[in-house]
Amino acid sequence: MTESSSMLAVVKEHYGPGFSLRSVPIPVPPPGWVRVRVRAVGICGSDLPIFEGIRPVPLPLIPGHETVGEVEALGEGVEGWAVGDRVAVDMVVACGRCRFCRIGRPTLCERLMELGIHTHGGFAEYMIAPARNLHRLPEPLTWEEGTAADPLASAYHGMRMAGPLDGATVAVFGTGAIGLYAIQLARHLGAWRILAVGRREAPLQQARELGADEGISIQRENPVEGIRARTGGLGADIVIEATGAPEIFPQVIEAAAPGGRILILGVFHEPTHLDAGRLVRKELQLWGSLCYTWDEYEYCLQLLAERRIRPLISHVFPLQEMGTALALLHRREALKIVIRPNP
């Protein structure tokens, strides 16, 4: 148990850019919840619009949802967990009672709450979470590696929805963390050929190291023409959008082969253009994907623990250096940053 009544936290206090580093009360877990001593939390691409003030969230808010740590206190009625247990915390808090929860679609819950977005998250020394959102962190994984479960599960959820990849040609637009996890998963799930589409050479090279057969630089060639040239003029069987950039989406449609599948993993904060006529004439299937289920998160923890998927971590910073971490991301000088509130 902590002896202090306050903790250090990154707090989004007002609309517009910026955040504050504050001393705030340590949260008390209500019945059915636990308090976690946060050991590591990844900065997600979806955190950046929160810090920039683009994404509406309830204020004040402690963001952060790629969280691992140790159980530090139990709320009333919590069973099966003990103080000191190593845990990973998934962000999806579903009601369990609405029609979508009852049919196994918790990501569509009518009362969906996401930790770090709709309520306080992990950019703090402590956080609280429902006990049902905890997963045991496998011993082979370090604190930093455990944070990879969330983005990996987000990619896996969509790729499961999009159907079998056996023997397919897959094109992945975006070489950030989600795109690189999608590439690794495509290889794991049996894709025959994987094409990575990106802007900068270093991430494209990493994509090749992680399983992509070829990298297509949009600085050097038109990505649609590049994909068609490598697929006999047809396009890719499955195209994965992992950028969240509105201007990219029309190219994603054109890069798909007739009868192909398109999966949107990127989070869009601005409208994009969709030529529905092309969708119809090419008989394309289109999927959007949000978060993950408890089982998918658990599976991804095991993939990481068994070293079937490589965790992506480029930098580690203490909580007090959040500003430095965000500046690196804005300059595109970091792939994936993990924050360590407690060493």
UniProtKB/TrEMBL annotation:
Keywords: Metal-binding, Oxidoreductase, Zinc
EC number: 1.1.1.-
Limits of the Enoyl reductase (ER) domain: 16-339
Domain of life per record: Bacteria
Cofactor: Zn(2+)
Top-level EC class as recorded in UniProt: oxidoreductase
InterPro entries, sorted: ADH-like_C, ADH-like_N, ADH_Zn_CS, ER, GroES-like_sf, NAD(P)-bd_dom_sf, Zn_alcohol_dh
GO terms of molecular function: oxidoreductase activity; zinc ion binding
Entries under Pfam families matching the protein: ADH_N, ADH_zinc_N
SUPFAM superfamilies: GroES-like, NAD(P)-binding Rossmann-fold domains
Protein family membership: Belongs to the zinc-containing alcohol dehydrogenase family.
Protein name per the record: Starvation-sensing protein RspB
This protein's encoding gene: rspB
